[in-house]
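Hi support team,

I've been running sequence recovery on a batch of backbones for a student project. Most finish fine, but this one hangs at about 90% for roughly twenty minutes before it completes. I'm not sure whether the input is malformed or the queue is just slow. I've pasted the structure tokens below so you can try to reproduce it. Let me know if you need the job ID as well.

Thanks,
M.K.
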């Protein structure tokens, strides 16, 4: 395994290394981790630090501690919870396209309902934010950040705290994906029209339908068109565990 980055504490490094190894398939679901002594030596941390790390990852759902037997790696999508979602989103460069699509489908399912509630409860805030779209520069990063801000406003405005907990975990992943998406002029133009349509009709049912249709169209575009640059971008700076 690589030397520990200077800015990471031993427990942080141990967690990062184990999570990356699981995501890469070095420790597939259902297989045991190496013994505590060997794994601590491989990671360059003390055994108490390793136990602390394994305990936290077990509470999150990555691992199952089996007393008297080796710690087992879980199928994290099947056995994990929101904590795993938060951790996975921190390592987008190690996700497969299928995993990314699955995570984004969660957003596509929840956002229309959140948008409807926000249009009911905070329509003036939505209108004020949407008015700012007129001044967006033709820049991928600007569009990505604006679009994420709109989604976050819808989620927060819905009044559902669980929506917020889920969406907060998507920010880093979404911004990377969205910047690649908005690098295309046609994507920026389509979104600019979407923002105009939202501002023109903030009736809750209309907002829900429009958001749902738009997300479906974007999802279809991603599914139908290969985007190798996106996955290459996610892989930039990739480190071995």
């Amino acid at each position: 395994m690589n030397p520990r980055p200077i800015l990471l504490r031993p427990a942080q490094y141990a967690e990062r290394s184990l999570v990356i190894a699981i995501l890469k398939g070095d420790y597939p679901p259902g297989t045991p981790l190496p013994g505590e002594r060997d794994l601590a030596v491989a990671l360059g941390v003390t055994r108490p630090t390793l136990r602390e790390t394994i305990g936290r990852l077990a509470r999150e759902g990555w691992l199952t501690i089996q007393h008297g037997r080796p710690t087992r790696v879980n199928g994290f999508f099947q056995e994990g919870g929101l904590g795993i979602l938060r951790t996975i989103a921190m390592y987008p460069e190690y996700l497969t396209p299928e995993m990314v699509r699955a995570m984004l489908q969660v957003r596509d399912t929840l956002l229309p309902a959140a948008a409807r509630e926000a249009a009911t409860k905070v329509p003036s805030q939505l209108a004020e934010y949407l008015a700012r779209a007129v001044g967006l520069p033709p820049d991928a990063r600007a569009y990505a950040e604006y679009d994420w801000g709109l989604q976050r406003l819808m989620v927060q405005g819905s009044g559902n705290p669980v929506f917020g907990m889920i969406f907060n975990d998507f920010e880093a992943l979404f911004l990377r994906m969205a910047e690649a998406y908005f690098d295309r002029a046609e994507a920026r133009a389509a979104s600019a029209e979407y923002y105009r349509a939202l501002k023109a009709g903030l009736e809750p049912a209309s907002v829900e339908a429009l958001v749902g249709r738009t997300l479906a169209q974007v999802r279809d575009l991603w599914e139908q068109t290969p985007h190798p640059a996106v996955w290459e971008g996610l892989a930039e700076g990739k480190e071995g565990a």
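--
Follow-up from support: It reproduced on our side and the slowdown came from queue contention, not your input. Confidence is low (pLDDT under 50) at residues 233-241. No action needed from you.
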